[in-house]
């Protein structure tokens, strides 16, 4: 189902001042409801299996018609401060249903209760688990903070000498917590989904040194990064994070493809708008190239 871009933009514009000034509890509740709604719409096509860890919970989103081997590790967004298991399952279920592949959805620990490096530690734990479960390969996907977290995760994997994922699919990634990008001000009014004030608040709660490459992976050594497919909206405030990451990957000799959708906002793919259909088509081709099919 395709949702009207005009309607989504209007709804987000109404919510933006409320969420910008809302308490952390209110913001978390609103985000989790969005995830629960996305997951519920996919229940005829996807089933869920829980998976418990010592420090966090996770679930598998498993398509009822599986056509691809391997798995996607989905790292959700939310500024490292929002997004419970229901939210993680939301877009994870969409990925499973649209691309006929198992998707692992960890609800990593959140700041400020669990500041940096808790989210990164949990992502590493989830990936280690998948290495023992999947023989068909792993692709990472995530939006916003989750899109940045995947690059930090790969840096940790290299440090520990672990097998790297076959590909990365960051959606509107937050890669620079120093907030030095050039798109914040010109896109301030065109992005109904995110504000600079929110990002500053998220950064403060997340903790860590914003210049640390594991906090801001834009500043990390990107040599040897897996093939990457980046999505961003032309009107989002984090556009420059995506553009600079794409350029830095190219400078490091890595394969990176960047799609900037005209008129779109932060993490637009999650909202089911028309431009998301084209994005999912690209994701499907990317998975075909990096993860084979299966006989199920």
N→C terminal distance: 26 Å
Overall geometric form? globular
Query: Architecture, according to CATH?
Result: 3-Layer(aba) Sandwich
Mean pLDDT: 91
Keywords:
about 300 residues, alpha/beta, Rossmann fold, 8-stranded mixed sheet, about 15% strand, globular
Give a structural overview.
- It is globular, with a radius of gyration of 17 Å.
- The protein has helices spanning 5-20, 24-41, 85-99, 118-133, 145-159, 196-206, 239-251, 274-290, and strands at 46-52, 57-63, 71-75, 102-107, 138-143, 167-171, 228-233, 256-261.
- It starts with a helix and ends in a 6-residue tail after the last helix.
- The chain is 41% helix and 16% strand.
- An 8-stranded mixed β-sheet has the order 1-2-4-3-5-6-7-8, with helices on both faces.
- Helix 2 runs parallel beside helix 3 and helix 4 (118-133) packs across helix 5.
- The chain has a single domain, classed as 3-Layer(aba) Sandwich (Rossmann fold), CATH 3.40.50.
- With 296 residues, it is α/β, with parallel strands linked by helices.
- The longest helix has 18 residues, at 24-41.
